[in-house]
Each structure stands twice: as C-alpha cells, then as structure tokens.
C-alpha cells in the first residue's frame, strides 16, 4: 500500500523536479541570449541594443532599418566574433569540467587544476614556437587546424596520465588527483617556459596571451575552426549523461548496469580533451570556469548529468562573456587578460569548496 | 531442501538445467603472485538462495566478482543461462544479473529515489514509467521513507538498503520466456542492524521464490543456515564443501574452514543448524568469569 503511495508521491516529486530543471534550462538559455546582446552592445563604443538586434536581423536576412555603418562594422568585425567565441569557449570549458568531474567522481576536477589545460597549452605553444622550424611537417600538413589539434593531443595525453595516476581499483583519490595536477601543471609550465625562452619577439607576444588567457584573438576564421571542433563534444557529451550518472556509482557498479565502462571512459576522455584543447588553442588557459559552473548548477538542479551538461554549456558561455565584458571594460582602452578575472572569481570559490570538502571528509 | 517449492517444471528436462544456472567452472585467478582462486566451481540455480561462506581472504568476493563479470578468471569459465559470459553484451548481462556491492564510491547528492532509478538504466530508463518500479523496490527494501533524502546524508546501513532497492529495480520484471535472473549480494548484512539483516535475507528468499537465483556472501553462519537452500564453503580459493546447510555446517568442517570449535544444535523453531562457538579456556564467554 505504502509503495503505491510512494509511487504517486515519487512520480509527483520527480515530475516537479524535472519541470524545475526544464524551466531552469529555459531560464539559462534566456540569460545566455541577454548576456550575448549586452556583450555585443557594450564596449569603447556603446551601441544601442536595438541596433544590435537590427544588425543580427540583417545577418539573418530579415528586412530591418538602416544602422549607422560604423556600428555595423564594429559589430561584424569585432564584437560578434568575440561574443560567439566567448560562448563557445565558455560552454566547452564548463561542459568539459562537468564531464571530468563525473569521470573522476569528484567535484573538484577542473581542466585547469588537474593539468589538462596546461598540457594542451604546452602542445599549442610548441606548435607556435617550433612550427616554423622543427615541426614544419606538422603545420604544413594540418594548416589552420594544427594549433587546436596539437592542443587536443596535449590535453588527451595529460587527461589519460592524470586518470592513470589518480584512480586505482575503480576508486579515485582526491589527493592524488590534485597532486598529479600540481605536478603536471609544473612540468608543462616548465616546458612552456623553456619554449618562451626560445621564442622570438613576434612569438613572444602571441605567447603572453596563452599564459593568461584572452578572447582577443577572435576572428571569424578562429570562430569557424573552433566551432567545428567544439561542436563535437558539445553535442555528444550530453548524449552520455546516463553513462556519466552510472559512473558516479563506481566503475564496477556502472559495469553491472550494462555500461561498457572502459570504452565509455576513453570516449569521455577524448571528448573532454577535444573540448579543452580547442578552447585552449583559441583563447589560452582560462581557469575555474569548468569548476565553478557545474558546481553552481549542482547546488540548484542536483547532480543529474542529463540537466547538468546542457545547463553547464549555457551557464559557462554566459559566465565567460560576463568575465570578458568586465575584462575589456574595467581598464579601457586597455584590456585585462580574462584568465585573471576568472581566477579572481574562481580561486576563492575553490578554496571555499576545499574547506567544505575537508569538513565532509572528517 | 535444495529443491525450491512451486517450480517443479524445470527439473524434468536435463537440457534446460544448463540454461537455468549461473555457473563458475574450475575458476583459477592469480593476482600479483597471490593465488586467489584455485579450481573453484560453483553453480546457482534459478529459484534458490546459495550462501557463500569462508574465512577472510578465502576468495569469496573474488568468486562473486568473477560471477558478476567484474574480474576475468585466468583459468576456467563462467556461464550465464547456458552461454559463456563473454557471449553476452554488458547490456544483456545487466538485464539478467544484478550485483549489490559492498561499498559504492557515490559521493554526489542524488536523492535515494534517483539512486534507485539508476537500476533502470539497462532497461533504457530512467523514464517516467520507471518511478513506479523504483517505488516498489524501495518499499521492498524498506527505504521508501528515504525517497527524497540526499544519498550523501544517509547512514551506511541506509545507503546499503538504497543500493539493494536499486539492484531489485534492475531485475524487477520477468524476462521473456521466464529466463532466469540472478542477484549477487556481497555481504549485504555487513552494515545492517539485526532486524534489517533478517529483513534483507527474507527479501532474498522472496526473490528466490520469484525464480531468481540468489548468491549471497555471508559471515554469519546462522544467517546462512536459516535462509539459504545451499551453502558453499570456501577456503584458500578452493571450494571445501557444497550442499544443504544441515549437511555442510558440521563441527568438523567449520573447524577445518575457520579454525573455530563449535557446537551445532538444532534451531528451536526452524530445525536448521544453530551454530554456537564452544567455550575455550583461552577465551571464556563474557559473564562466566563472575
């Protein structure tokens, strides 16, 4: 009898929960659109949102009124590609963070903290510095994609390395995970430093932007190649939501639920490495987005990856746009590296998380 | 006693028998130089409760992990309903066999209901139709009052029972043509109070009556005697004896397996063996010194 009552109550609770999650996703989508419009409108030249809408309407082939040509030029050449790039990079970092946390069964995993971003950056810097000398065969063959693909490979190697180091017998040790991250960050930092030492002036300017992260390199070409690469993890990771949920129970338990554990883990590692690699290749190391965004969403919506992953993509995009808006307006006409802004926000957040984690572990 | 009541049909066709067992044949497993299993054979039939007993390190969990497909034996083979385990895809095995782990590393704040619903993943769930099954499974495991609670706030015993509800939800419905399902329980009573220990094993009996083959690793010889159709005693990776509790749980065998001197009495109500350790001069029973 009581089970029937619970069935009704449980169904109602789940239904409420799911409609709350669906509403939140719609809300996050709206937020993303609003932030994107703001990001296009605000800058050294402030453009009325109405004109922004007109330009976008014009791009979509709608019959719209005339817009001052200098507005149109600013939007089409500078603000729109930068905003799209911010959305892509933020979404991919956040969804990669959420997936890594599911894979490691640990809410403290972040592509920056555990060394995935650093590995991707080291590979990308190698291509920048050695691309015209030692690695010409590579850059010649792959062209515009050589940088993101190298970053992907670097991210892949470091993710696999960290996973090997941190998990034994199907359990992941937080301590080993974070310590492995420190070691890999240090090693890749040393490698990047060495390459910086070898770089010429032109390369050095490019490299500075790597170390701190920036969306300043936003061109339509960059947006295009990044979109192609990021679309793969962005569209396929949400399809693995149930697998990630099952993996949270443990590797053996996921196996008993019929998941091909090792194969799925490899797929998730490859997809997150692609997401991080493509993001790092175009914008350098931007930390903490992958940590903060999934955590906020888990607090609000619970840990179910079926909502967490799309939610993370939306919130990650809008959060990174807000950070970028702050970075490029607070010291106009100069620009703060966006990595500094996300670190200023994310660092204290991470410390608070660590303290909470320690209390729970005791 | 080894025959389960209410299901006489299957025993008449010997050919059917192989298709109605989960069987380990002559398993050998060596890990890091240690011989964990050495020629162990064990078969659980649909409709019976088989208790696996043995001292610490005897290989009970290892044997269960081989039956569950989690470990691949270096020698021998495991057959599920007549087919080698490797012939089943992970998804197909998951419809036929659920495994209750000793511990789960889950540390994310799913509600108990959401954890139970994960048992429906092999069925393509969890969808709206799975909530009813999850609710009934939670009721069976006596955790329905915890449905909305976050898993991370539950006690060890409560978590264990939520996972029990999850594995029940996994094999809840009959398969086509009543193909047998199996439930592997690794020390399900370890973190439970006595009342819940008995409730869990009563549940195992009920599921055996529904044509499920249940393998349960236990430390408590009396629970095994009371609730199982057959017991298997494992020592140093080998099966020492298999049979009904009354046949196997003799003082000589218990001394050989556990190095423990015992009296075997008859249970006052059930008549099954009741095992009581002997009082030895080295270890007087509490209170006797007074």
Rg from alpha-carbon coordinates of chain B? 19 Å
- Per CATH, the class of chain A reads Mainly Alpha
Supply the CATH architecture of chain B: 3-Layer(aba) Sandwich
**Strand/helix succession of chain B:** HEEEHEEHEHHHEHEHEEHHEE
Taking pLDDT < 50 over at least 5 consecutive residues as the criterion, the unreliable ranges of chain A are none
Oligomer: heterodimer
DSSP helix count of chain B? 10
> What order do the strands of the largest sheet of chain B run in, or round the barrel if closed?
6-7-8-3-9-10
Known CATH architecture of chain A = Orthogonal Bundle
Strand content of chain B: 25-35%
**Overall geometry of chain B:** globular
- Uncertain segments of chain B are 1-15
DSSP summary, beta strand count of chain A: 2
**Based on helices, strands and strand pairing, what is the structural class of chain B?**
alpha/beta
Structure description:
The complex is a heterodimer of chains A (362) and B (290). By secondary structure, chain A is an all-alpha fold. Chain A has one domain: Orthogonal Bundle (ABC transporter involved in vitamin B12 uptake, BtuC). Chain A contains 15 helices and two strands. In chain A, strands 1-2 form a two-stranded antiparallel ribbon. Chain A is globular, with a radius of gyration of 21 Å. Chain B is built from ten helices and twelve strands. Chain B has a six-stranded mixed β-sheet, sandwiched between helices. A four-stranded antiparallel β-sheet of chain B has the order 2-1-4-5, with helices on one face. Chain B has a two-stranded antiparallel ribbon with strand order 11-12. In chain B, helix 5 packs across helix 6 (156-170). The interface between A and B is large, with 36 and 45 residues.
């Amino acid at each position: 009898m009581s089970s029937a009552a619970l069935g009704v109550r449980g169904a109602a609770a789940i239904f409420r929960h799911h409609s709350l999650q669906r509403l939140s996703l719609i809300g996050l989508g709206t937020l993303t659109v609003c932030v994107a419009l703001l990001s296009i409108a605000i800058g050294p030249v402030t453009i009325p949102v109405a004109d922004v809408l007109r330009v976008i309407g014009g791009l979509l082939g709608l019959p719209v009124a005339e817009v001052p040509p200098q507005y149109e030029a600013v939007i089409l050449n500078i603000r729109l590609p930068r905003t799209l790039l911010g959305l892509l990079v933020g979404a991919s970092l956040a969804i990669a963070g959420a997936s890594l946390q599911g894979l490691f069964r640990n809410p403290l995993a972040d592509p920056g903290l555990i060394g995935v971003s650093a590995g991707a950056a080291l590979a990308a810097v190698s291509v920048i510095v050695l691309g015209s000398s030692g690695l010409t065969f590579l850059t010649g063959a792959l062209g515009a994609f050589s940088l993101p693909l190298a970053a992907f490979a670097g991210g892949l190697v470091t993710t696999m390395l960290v996973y090997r180091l941190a998990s034994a017998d199907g359990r992941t040790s937080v301590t080993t995970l974070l310590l492995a991250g420190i070691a890999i960050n240090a090693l890749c930092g040393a490698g990047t430093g060495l390459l910086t030492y070898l770089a010429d002036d032109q390369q050095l300017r490019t490299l500075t932007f790597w170390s701190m992260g920036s969306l300043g390199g936003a061109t339509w070409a960059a947006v295009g190649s990044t979109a192609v690469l990021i679309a793969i993890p962005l569209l396929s990771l949400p399809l693995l939501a149930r697998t990630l949920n099952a993996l949270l129970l443990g590797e053996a338990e996921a196996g008993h639920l019929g998941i091909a554990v090792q194969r799925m883990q490899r797929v998730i590692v490859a997809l997150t490495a692609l997401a991080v690699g493509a993001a790092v290749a175009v914008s350098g190391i931007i930390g903490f987005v992958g940590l903060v965004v999934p955590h906020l969403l888990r607090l609000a919506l619970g840990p179910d990856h079926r909502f967490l992953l799309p939610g993370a993509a939306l919130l990650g995009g809008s959060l990174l746009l807000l950070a970028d808006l702050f970075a490029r307006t607070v010291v106009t006409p100069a620009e703060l590296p966006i990595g500094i802004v996300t670190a200023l926000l994310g660092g204290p957040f991470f410390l608070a998380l660590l303290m909470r984690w320690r209390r729970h572990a005791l | 006693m080894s025959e389960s009541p209410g299901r006489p049909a299957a025993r008449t066709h010997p050919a059917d028998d192989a298709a109605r067992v989960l069987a380990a044949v002559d398993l050998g497993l060596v890990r890091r130089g240690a011989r964990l299993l050495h020629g162990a054979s064990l078969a659980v039939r649909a409709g019976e409760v088989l208790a696996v007993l043995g001292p610490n390190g005897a290989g009970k969990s290892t044997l269960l992990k081989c039956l569950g497909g989690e470990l691949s034996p270096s020698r021998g083979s495991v057959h599920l309903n007549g087919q080698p385990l490797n012939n089943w895809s992970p998804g197909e095995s998951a419809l036929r066999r659920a495994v209750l782990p000793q511990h789960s590393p889950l540390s994310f704040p799913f509600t108990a209901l959401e954890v139970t619903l994960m048992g429906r993943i092999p069925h393509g769930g969890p969808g709206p139709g799975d909530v009813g099954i999850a609710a009934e499974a939670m009721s069976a495991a006596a955790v329905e009052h915890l449905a909305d609670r976050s898993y991370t706030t539950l006690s060890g015993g409560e978590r264990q029972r939520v996972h029990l509800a999850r594995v029940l939800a996994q094999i809840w419905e009959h398969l086509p043509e009543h193909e047998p399902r199996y439930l592997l329980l690794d020390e399900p009573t370890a973190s439970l109070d006595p009342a819940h220990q008995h409730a869990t094993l009563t549940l195992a009996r009920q599921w055996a009556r529904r044509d499920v083959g249940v393998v349960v690793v236990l430390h408590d010889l009396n629970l095994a005697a009371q609730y199982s159709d057959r017991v298997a005693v494992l020592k140093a990776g080998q099966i020492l004896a298999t049979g009904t509790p009354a046949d196997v749980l003799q003082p000589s065998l218990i001394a050989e397996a556990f190095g423990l001197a015992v009296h075997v009495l008859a249970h006052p109500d059930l008549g099954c063996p009741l095992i009581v350790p002997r009082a030895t001069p080295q270890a007087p029973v509490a209170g006797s010194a007074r």
